[in-house]
């Protein structure tokens, strides 16, 4: 920042940019995204927009690790615990809400900071249109509802088999039970007589998600750490959640054989406890109905010596939460790598490994906050179309990349991968290499015995 300038001066200069400037803080679960965003509020006039697909819902504050009000330090937070837990808040819903919020935040001369680990939310927001929402990839800027996109008669055949007959390439891209996308693809074909696969491989796939075509002037900061450090921190965080009332939260929304594919019940830590809660409800119905008694019983089980059935089932559920969270961390990291490699996003990586291993405020400030502040100041000083959003971006031609071909890995139980990039990433994975090596050794042994 120049001598005598203030954060508000920087924002005033940034408003001259034809693209609105936003800061996006990315990173895997447990890396410290929210903490960094709040700390930035001491250096810039900011408002935070939550981009975590589970934290947007009301409820399960402990399980979803929402920042408590007293830790928000007066920084306005948006889309944090505001959505009904029983509805599906899609990427399109997030995009529409966040776009309006960004305009409002800028009107208050504040800097919008988008924070969250749900990368498809962020992609939906910063891209000029949504890849799988036909209302957004049709020509022109006017949005249309479903009724304008082809026939809506109940007699219409919106079946997977019909899509497969019309466009087997598009059908191969989606799951046979994904009725929403099946209807979208068939409506597109009915309205415009264009095969969905041809449309995707043309204009849409060529432009979608590329750094040079982003809707906003973005400063991407990724809070990163080594996998061992993240794994250790995630395990510790789950233990802290259990101590802070996670089990009582899950008990409050427990429904036997619930739908875990919609709303808040998709959160890691809900389905994992279903078997234990079903068992405990059947054996101890009276204590299950009393929140205080239930919480006390859970504490006694975990503190007990020995390994009886209740303790075994409860500890098994907790380990599942830890395992699935660690798996989520790996998926998030792979997707971030894809955004950088495949779409050309210029992401500034901030290593927090040492901070996760040693809880030190001074270390966090020196290693994380100060470098991030420096990055944002440089970003805010830039005028015109910022090259920071596309800096170092290679001329990636997505239309030439294989994003459609279905690959089946027999070594990994016929697991399906979409596109050459996913296939190459899968082949480099440790699990695939171990299985492939085992199969190769088995074949060699068989050949030796046969010979």
Describe the SSE topology.
Layout: H1 7-14, E1 21-27, H2 33-40, E2 46-50, E3 77-78, H3 91-107, E4 111-115, H4 119-126, H5 134-137, H6 160-166, H7 168-173, H8 179-192, H9 196-207, E5 217-224, H10 227-243, H11 246-252, H12 274-283, H13 285-289, H14 291-303, H15 309-341, E6 347-351, H16 353-357, H17 361-381, E7 406-409, E8 415-418, H18 419-428, H19 430-450
Parallel strand pairs: 1-4, 1-5, 2-3, 2-4, 5-6
Antiparallel strand pairs: 7-8
Helix pairs in contact: 3-4, 10-15, 11-14, 12-15
Give structural notes:
The chain is of the alpha/beta class and 451 residues long. The strands form 2 sheets. It has a 6-stranded parallel β-sheet, sandwiched between helices. Strands 7-8 form a two-stranded antiparallel ribbon. A hairpin with a 5-residue loop joins strand 7 and strand 8. Helix 12 runs antiparallel to helix 15. It is globular, with a radius of gyration of 24 Å. The relative contact order is 0.13. The N terminus is likely disordered.
